[in-house]
Amino acid sequence: MMLLYGLITGVIFGFLLQKARVIRYDKQLGALRLMDMTIVKFMFSTILVAMVGTYLLKDLGLVKLSIKPTVLGAVILGGLIFGIGWGLLGYCPGTSAGALGEGRFDAIWGILGMLVGAGLYAEVYPAMKKTVLTWGNLGKITFPQVLGLNHWVLIPFFVIGGLILFWWFEKKGL
């Protein structure tokens, strides 16, 4: 049943990516050049909705959060690899799959690169487990825990900040 939920949410997310036009190469390039914030607005609105929904479901006792440890070495290295791949290809993992679904076969190179990267990661994981994956291990933390505040005190600041950011992007024509 969990696989079915994953398939359904994946199809819905892919549909929304396509409808928001964020899987278009020109939108990807515009985001990388900080000239088109369509992708930033889409992803940030997704994060804000997920933040509110997740904490609401948690407080209602419908879900239990499984916080992963924050490991700075892994986050920094992974972010660099992700950014370099996105910059070289012009698609991120989700948008490359969506682009392929729309018939843009240039995305195949990114998908093949992800598969090769996953294989390489599996090969070097034992060595990384003792090195990079231990550098800067901050444990299972969240912003509310770090600041010592209830999550509902912080969420309005993120939502208001997001709305201000969206307004500013629109004012600048981004």
Q: What series of H and E elements makes up the topology?
A: HHHEHHHEHH
Let me know the number of strands. 2
CA(first)-CA(last) distance: 41 Å
Whole-number mean pLDDT: 91
- Proportion of residues in helical segments: over 70%
Strand order of the largest sheet: 1-2
Radius of gyration, whole Å: 18 Å
Helical segment count:
8
Strand content: under 5%
Principal-axes geometry comes out as globular
Description:
This protein has 174 residues and is mostly helical. Helices cover 72% and strands 3% of the residues. It contains eight helices and two strands, in the order αααβαααβαα. It has helices spanning 2-19, 25-32, 38-59, 72-89, 93-101, 107-130, 143-147, 151-171, and strands spanning 70-71, 137-139. The chain has a two-stranded antiparallel sheet with strand order 1-2. Helix 3 packs antiparallel against helix 8. The longest helix is centred in the last third of the chain and has 24 residues, at 107-130. The protein is globular, with a radius of gyration of 18 Å. The mean pLDDT is 91.
Output the keywords:
174 residues; mainly alpha; two-stranded antiparallel sheet
Write the layout of secondary structure elements.
Elements (H helix, E strand, L loop, with lengths): L1 H18 L5 H8 L5 H22 L10 E2 H18 L3 H9 L5 H24 L6 E3 L3 H5 L3 H21 L3
Antiparallel strand pairs: 1-2
